[in-house]
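User: Can you predict the 3D structure for this chain?
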Amino acid sequence: MSEISPKKTILVISQVYVPDPTSVGQHMHDAAAELARRGYRVLVYAASRGYDDPSRKYLSRETLDGVTIRRLPFSSFGKKSIKVRLLGQSLFLLQVIIRGLFTRRLNRILVSTSPPMASTAAVFIQFFRRVPITFWAMDINPDQIVAMGQASQGSLVVRVFDWINRTILKRARGVVALDRFMAARLEAKHPVGDRMAIMPPWPHESHLEPVNHADNPFRKEHGLGDKFVIMYSGNISPAHPVTTILEAAKKLQDDPRIEFLFIGGGNGKKSIDEFIQREQVGNVRTLPYQPLDQIKYSLSAADVHVVAMGTEMVGIVHPCKVYGAMAVARPILLLGPMESHVGELLKSHDIGWQVDHGNVAEAETCIRQIASLSQAQRAEKGGRGKQLIEQELSMKTLCGRFCDVVEWS
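Assistant: Here is the predicted structure, written as structure tokens:
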């Protein structure tokens, strides 16, 4: 590859960014750091406060792994309500537009769906600066808010969002979808054709490796002992409903071996805490997001990982948490439809089990069966997942392919 002038600037627009624990920000940094290694000046505009926890304040100016980061004030007020989120997003994008118009030696723009309207800033800057855009679709709105019942299909907000989608899909030089279901939804909004690339997000293997239970400080710290641990780790939201697993947990209280652990944040965490208090279940616990440098211990503490996918959410969101579980060689319990990306992984590679939403009896039976398997039998399924990561879905492979799209678009 020919040498790139370091004066050419790639502008990255992402409301969330490391050290915020949100997956989007971590993946954006991986891509930004790789582009910086390829010789570009990479400039990131992000929010100065935490997305899930706005009390967390980050440095306004920082350089990480060769990436220049500028965190903007008044751009994140938490997730108390849609109005509060829209206020933070709007102020963030207004600042990005003003700064982006005057970014020196701007060569191209990378934008994702954080915030959902981020593409409007990219298109506005592109109109005046005439540079290519790469659009990374991490999820799809308004499809998500419609599927969750927060807006009707014909409402004004939905029509505006769809106009924004059609605009970015028309104007972007490259579009990256996370799976074939998402690509089909985007293609239905506006023809993309050969400008579309399909690739899943990568696991953070530099922070992930299997840790044996006996050597795992996380299990010791949280008193897991010889428990059989069913874990959900990641964003907890209505897009990833876990009611069926919670109801199964209530029925499984007669088995003292089994414990359910929910790690992460999001709007759905409160409902789990309320369930624990209301139902007085002693086999369910919640914990906050774990630091990235400790994630190998928390993920490895599980015997099986729950990956939840709302039936209506297929092609709208992508369950990134599956790759972390695979990277630490733990099998998967899919709570959701087989006709989905994770369902395809289960069918083609036999890395776990599947239960439909609402079928509590099936979930209870499946969990009892998994718990009764030998450790070697579970390890066989988990091992196949890790092998798939190493052979096809590694960070080196996928992040490299992604940055190729950004460069060549």
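The first strand starts at residue 9 and ends at 13. The two ends are 15 Å apart (CA to CA).
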